[in-house]
Amino acid sequence: MSSKPNVVLGVSGGIAAYKACELLRRLTESGHDVRVVPTDSALHFVGAATWSALSGNPVSTEVWDSVHEVPHVRIGQHADVVVVAPATADMLAKAAHGLADDLLTNTLLTARCPVIFAPAMHTEMWEHPATQENVATLRRRGALVIEPAVGRLTGVDTGKGRFPDPVEIFEYVRRVLARGAGTPDLTGRHVVVSAGGTREPLDPVRFLGNRSSGKQGYALARTAAARGARVTLLSANAGLPDPAGVDVVHVGTAVQLREAALKAAGDADAVVMAAAVADFRPETYATGKIKKKDGEEPAPIALVRNPDILAEISAGRPRPGQVVVGFAAETDDVLANGRAKLARKGCDLLVVNEVGERKTFGAEENEAVILGSDGTENPVPYGPKEALADRIWDAVVSRLPHQE
Questions:
Q1: Annotated binding site, which residues?
Q2: Cα distances (angstroms) measured from residue 191 to each of 99, 127, 168, 228, 339
Q3: DSSP characters for 115-133?
Q4: pTM for the full model?
Q5: Residues 276-294, mean pLDDT to the nearest whole number
Q6: pLDDT tens digit string along 195-248?
């Protein structure tokens, strides 16, 4: 028996079906055994021969093929994860209402593993109340419905409904498989994550900034999405690809981040402020480039304080039971300074790590200590930022109030 994870890739009939070929390639090349189950309409966009060649497995749309193997039951029963990509509005409706008129919809009814839908459709179709109701029904039952991306659609249209980046969908699937079966523990929750570093403009070409890459915040957003959350990512100058299933709001300065964070936090169950926010900004902004003058020293730059976003959100708590998480990058007396900051900011958790040359900023790995306002102290050993992200969400989940 193969020890490879068994992935069912369902493909429904949308133009984005051709992009699923890249997802299939990444899944097979990373050691997954993939069975592609297209709908009849999907084969108008990409033929069965292509799916079979890329997966190395037979392809069928009919429950009547190989009847002795009972494929309409067996495929779903043996799957470790089912991914429908793209998922059209029609497929979401069929899945929500339990219809079973082809091999893919039968497979969805027999699957007892995590089921992921990656929608792709025109904006009007995605925003239609019927589609939104179907998505809500699927999520309520434990299915993972990835938020579509925003961008160019078929023809000249632009808006929300674009098929997410196949690379990001692959990462999403990998994280879901890593967590195993069971209802994702952030299902039905809205979480807000900030990432990157703010930049405070001095003139049209210069700014005061920091070295934050945004990678830890993006890892937090990706892992939260894979755990079933609706995620709003406030990205400050990160320059990283938008994670699949995440609503991304791009900001530049601390003032812009504050505005976006207060707006997003209004209905959030948890707010994780992982972005490195500049403490100060130039008092004045030069509308023209500041010139270097021979024989003259540069004029001093007067600074003013930026708003303390973490403290403001911690004190405001627009939603009862909201969990607020801060980050502290320290260079010395790490735990003592972290405890002092935790008390000063008023948040529930503070993730403290040591920074410096070749430490944390821009790296793929991290280590930290998660401090709790209740006196708890949880060290996370050096490892992938994704692992730290999961430990942070574990701590958040344990503090969230029970959902009705």
A1: 279, 289, 307-310, 327, 341, 345
A2: 32, 21, 19, 10, 24
A3: EEEEE---HHHHHSHHHHH
A4: 0.84
A5: 91
A6: 999 999 999 999 999 888 999 999 999 999 999 899 999 999 998 989 988 999
Strands 6-11, 365-372: parallel, antiparallel or unpaired by DSSP? unpaired
Distance CA 275, CA 268 (A): 17
Residue 351's Cα: distance from chain center in Å? 19
Q: 81: exposed, middle or buried (C-beta count within 10 Å: 0-12, 13-18, 19+)? A: buried
Tokens coding 313 = 């959100």
Tell me the one-letter amino acid at 85. A
In the chain the domains, ranked by start, together with CATH numbers, are: 6-179 (3.40.50.1950), 190-399 (3.40.50.10300)
Do the Cβ atoms of 388 and 365 come closer than 8 Å? no
- Whether the CA torsion 169, 45, 148, 397 is positive or negative: it is negative
CA 12, CA 10: separation in Å to the nearest integer?
A: 7
Helix (H, G, I), strand (E, B) or coil at 23: helix
Which residue of the set 106, 134, 210, 237 is catalytic? 210
CA–CA distance, 148 with 135 (Å, rounded to integer): 12
Query: Residue type for 212, please?
Result: S
The dihedral sign for the CA sequence 163, 182, 190, 127: positive
Q: Which backbone phi and psi does 322 adopt, to 5 degrees?
A: -65, 135
Tokens 């990656």, residue?
Answer: 118
Q: Which residues are annotated binding-site positions for CTP?
A: 279, 289, 307-310, 327, 341, 345
Q: Is 210 a catalytic residue?
A: yes
Q: How many angstroms separate the CA atoms of 362 and 211, rounded?
A: 8
Encoding tokens for residue 145?
A: 């419905």
Residue with tokens 């429950």: 63
